[in-house]
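**Tokenised fold:**
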Amino acid sequence: MLGLAAALASALLTLLVIQYAHQAQMHDAPGARRMHRQPTVRGAGLGFVAVIIAGWGGLGLALGYADPLGRWALCAALGVLVVAVVSWMDDRRPLPVLPRLLAHVVGALIVTWGVWPSWSTHYPQPLLLCVPVVLLVPAINFWNFVDGINGLAASQAAVVATGLAALAVAAGDVPASWFSAIVGGALLGFLPSNFPKARAFMGDVGSASLGLIVGALALQPVRETAVVLPAVFLLAALVFLDTGLTLAWRMLRRPRRRWYTAHREHLYQWLTRAGWGHVRTTTLYFIGAAGTLLTVLFIGPLHPDLMLIAVIVTYLVGAVLWRLGRDYALQQSRRRS
């Protein structure tokens, strides 16, 4: 019921934001570094982000700050709000890198503060200090990087939310599943506006906030807390592999180039330009994510001790497939040219 309510609210708000974006002339024009061919409004992700912030904040208040899950929810909602506000400003009028990065760090620190008491009993405190830099800030930027074709960023995050909701229910922690259900429902309400044909883009307010939302879900205090973090790394493997390997490749490639600038060198972008198109490429990534979802649902509840092994194997195999996919896409692009 929460997921359904979130979907309806998100769909309605998305339509209202799209109308506003048209009136405010918030359009992304086609360009050499973009994958679309006609001007499209941006910032529509504000609709589902607002639903998630309101849902998490309301449930957090109901549970109370003293409850570990309530504390996490309130801090996660506040952290996402910080990132969303600055990202919306960036969608309205591009901001320099520094204020955006500062917002990402502040949002990540607020989320980390919310999980500190519960996670400090499971993990060493020095490791928790690394969470904003190692997990949350990269997740914000990785989801921003992968938001380049229709439906990709939203569908991948929806798979993460679905898997975590199912794991929480399997662990007997139904309240924890509410928060993932809200995320999944809100994204399903947004997707018809972005896939298969994009009437609007989620913009930085959607993609950056979504990255922090996924990172916050990875730290959610669930009864089987030790399973949640590796589950997120499995469920988000395609996003982390494509963005992480592409970034590493650009940093190490010779001759040197500005690896931090906008580009079209992710695997999903190569596949799209090689003739696969938006729908086929997003569907391929969704099938891959669905495969990791089945793995999580099979291993997580029954063999939690195998989760870390599954993560290692998935990323090693994924790295090989990423390289083979790039070679295939390059060959197809050369044939087309």
The chain has one domain: 2-336. The chain has 13 helices and two strands. The longest strand covers residues 27-28. The chain has a mean pLDDT of 89.
